[in-house]
Amino acid sequence: MARKISRAGGSIAYGWAIWHIPGLYFEAEHHGVWRNRRGDLLDVSPQLGDVSEILFLPDSTAVYNPSQFRSNVITPANDTPVAIEFVAMAKARNAILDRYRTDEYIAVTLSAADQAALDAIKLRLSDLWKSAGK
Description:
Layout: H1 2-8, E1 11-21, E2 25-35, E3 41-42, E4 55-58, E5 73-76, H2 81-98, E6 101-102, E7 105-106, H3 112-131
Antiparallel strand pairs: 1-2, 1-4, 2-3, 2-5, 6-7
Helix pairs in contact: 2-3
């Protein structure tokens, strides 16, 4: 982002990238996008998969601070047992990983117990994903 701003001007706008998997969940991920000189918001960060555009919710209070990691906010898309359990498993996964964060990165090897728990959670998430037809 800094390189884009230094070459083309503009500034960074902080907020939340909103992800939605129909039938399962909504997730808000702390994110920054480029605000060009006209004020347009453009995501210049590479995304995983074939994502061509994102839904971005600007939040002037969500300024990036490397010593304060902001966890994703995730909520079920509906009240079905699959969606509710999927979100519970995702939150459990994030709780384990968040214990190992140093600034914004996971910097150490997980304990054997946490790795085993994480492996079980990933397996259950995969099963729930499939049962939701994804």
